[in-house]
Predict the structure of LacI family transcriptional regulator.
Amino acid sequence: MGDSGGARDGRTRKAARLIDVARLADVSRATAARALGGYGVVTQETREKVAEAAKALDYRVNDLARSMRSGKTLTIGVVVADISNSFTLNSIRGIIDASGSAGYQSLVLNTDGDVRREREAVRVLREKRVDGLLIVPASRLDVGHLAGGRGHGAPVVLFDRFIDDLPLDSVVTADFEASRAAVNLFVEHGHRRIGLLLGTAAHHGHQDSEPHDTVSAVRERARGALAGFADAGLAVNPSWVRYAGSVAPTALAAARHLLSQSPRPTAILAGNEEMLLGALAAAEEIGLAIGRDLSLIGFDDAPWLAVFRPPLSVIQRPTYELGRRAVSLLLSKVGGNRRSESIVLPATLINRASVASISDH
Amino acid sequence: MGDSGGARDGRTRKAARLIDVARLADVSRATAARALGGYGVVTQETREKVAEAAKALDYRVNDLARSMRSGKTLTIGVVVADISNSFTLNSIRGIIDASGSAGYQSLVLNTDGDVRREREAVRVLREKRVDGLLIVPASRLDVGHLAGGRGHGAPVVLFDRFIDDLPLDSVVTADFEASRAAVNLFVEHGHRRIGLLLGTAAHHGHQDSEPHDTVSAVRERARGALAGFADAGLAVNPSWVRYAGSVAPTALAAARHLLSQSPRPTAILAGNEEMLLGALAAAEEIGLAIGRDLSLIGFDDAPWLAVFRPPLSVIQRPTYELGRRAVSLLLSKVGGNRRSESIVLPATLINRASVASISDH
DNA sequence: TTGGCAAAAGAGATCGATCTCATTGGGTGT
DNA sequence: ACACCCAATGAGATCGATCTCTTTTGCCAA
C-alpha cells in the first residue's frame, strides 16, 4: 500500500530476487540462501522468517543464475530427426519420464532430418549448457558437430542410430535381425518376390539404390533383408528395392513404382510408418487386397493399427524402454562414467494377418 | 604440446570463455566481445585476430551468462497436455517453425493432462526465465499457476483451450460451430439418434455426465452438439452421451457402452482421435459397418485416415496455423503489446464417406 | 568477570558475457 | 607547436544465486 516508491514494491514491478527476500526478512543474502536451500545452519526462527518473506514476495529462484554458479543446468538436450512418428513419440515419452524422475528436464528439438537444423540445434543446446545430449543423427557422414569440441564436455549418446567411425555411445534396436526375421517370415509363407520400401530423409526423392548418406537404422534394415534373401537363396532384384523420402507423397510414389513392376513383388517390407501408409495407399489404388494379393510387414506399432483391417503384421520395437535406457546411459556419463557402451535391444515380429501364404512357387 | 600446465590448455580441459579468447588475442574482454558481437567499433585487424583466437579455442558463448546479463532468454516455453495426438503434433510444428524464424527457441513440456505436472512445468519454465509461455491447460478450475505471480511478467497465451474467468489471451478453434455443423450433417442425413463420445483427461474413467473439470474445447464441442440437437428439435438422450478418458482402453469401453444401448445411436461424433479409434474398434466388435450401419465423424485429420476404409469424415482444424498464430500473439506480448486478444480460427468439416443416409425415420 | 567455543549470520568472491564510462593514441586544423 | 577530436580500446560494474571464509553472538565454565 504505502510503499514509498522503492525499486521493487512487490506489486507487479519486477520478479523478487534473493536479495529482496533477504532484505524483507532482515537477514543477509547468505542466510536467506541457507534458509531457502536447506543447507548450512539456520535458526528455526530465521528459517520461518525467510520462508514467509519469500512467500510474501512470491520469490522464485533464477535458474540461470543458479546454473551459472553451479555449472550444471540439470537439463538434457534431445535432438530428434522426426517427432511425428509413433516410434519417436513413444521414445520421447520414455526419455522425458526417465530424465524427469532423475531430476532432469528435457529440451526436445526437432530437425526434420535436416543436418543443418541438427547442427544448429546442437549448437544452441551446447550454448544453453545442457548437461548431456541425446541425438537421433540425421546423417551418417556429416557428423562433425556430434562430438563436442574441446572442453565442451557435455556427453553425447546416439539414439536409434549409430555412426560407424565415431566412438559415441548409442542405444539402438536390433534392426538387422528384425528385418531378416521379417523376410524369413515372408519366405516361410512361400514368397520369393519380396519388395523393400525403405524410408530415408524427408527431402529425398525415391530411387532404387541406397542413397549415399543413409543412416544406420535404414542400412541395417536393408542389410538384414538382404541376409534374409541370402538365407533363402534368393537373388536381389533391384527393381523391387526402393529408397524413398519419408513423406507421404514420396512414399506413395515409391510404392506405386514398386507395384508397377512386372512381375511385381508379392510381399513388401515397409521400413517405417510413412512407407507402410504409402504401400497401403498404392495397393488400394490398383485394387490389391492386403493379406491376400499383397503381403505386408511394417516397422513400428501405432495406435491406428488396432483398427485397421486386415490386421497388419509389424515389427515392434521397445520404444519406451529404448528411451529409458538412453537416458540412464547418458546420465551415467554425465555423472562421470567414462566407459563406452553400445546398447542394442531386440525387436519383436508380431505376425497378425497381412502375410499371406503362397502355394505355388 | 608443450603447454606449461595453465588452467586451460585448450585441449580437453574446460570450455573456453570470452576471457580466454581475449587473452589469446591479446586484447581486453570488452574488445573481444565487440569483435565477436559485431557492435561498437573495432579495427578490421583486431576483429580478425579475435576471430582467429575464438576459432583456435573453439569458443562458444555461454548462453546462461548472456541471458543473465540481457534479461532475455530468447526462449518460449510450451506446455501441452498431450504431445502424442496429431493435433498437438502439427500445432507444435507450427509453433516451432514460427518461433524459430523469429529467433526463439521452444521448450516443449508434456503434462499428459495432469495438472500437477502442468504446475511443475510452468514453475520450471518460469525459473528458467523463458520469455513467454504457451499453454494447453489441463484444467478449467485449477489455474492459479497460469497467471504469473507478481513480477513474473513472462506473458502467457493459452492454446486450444481458454479459461472462462481468467483474462488470458488465447488461440483456439471454433469448436462449438464445428461440432454443431457435424450434428447438422448427421441430421441432414436423417439421423435422429446421435451419440457423443467426448474425450477428457486421460486419468478419467467414462461416464454419461460432464465431468466437473472439463476443458473449454470439450465443453464447446458438447455445447455445439447440443445446439445441433436443438436446431433439429431433438431431445438429448443422456445414454447416448459419453465422456471418457483419452486413452485406448477407456475410449473403447465408452464406445462399447454407447453401442450397447437400445435403441443404439445410428451416428457418433467422436471428440478426438482416441475416441474415434475407440468407436471404430467397438463398432467392429459387434459387426457394425461404418458408413452403413453406423455413421461417424471425428475430430482432427491424421495420416492414417488416408488409408482407412471407408474414408472417414472429420472436422479438420487448422493445426499448423493455430500454432503460428499463437506464437505470433505471444511474441507480440513479449514485445510489450498490452492489448488482450482472443483468436478463434474456424474448422472445416470434411465429409468423406462415413456418414450414411437414413431413409426411414 | 572473563576466556573459550560453538552456533549463527554476514561479507565478499565467483560464474561469464555485456555494456557504460573512462582512457589512450594518432591525427588534423590553425 | 598546441589544443582538440575522434577512433580504438580498456577498466569495472552488472545480472542473481551460491559458497567459502570471516565475524559476531550467545552461552557456559572456571
In short: Chain B has three domains: 18-61, 73-172+319-345, 175-318. Residues 27-31, 34, 40-43, 46, 65, 67-71 of chain B lie near DNA strand D (CB under 10 Å from a C1').
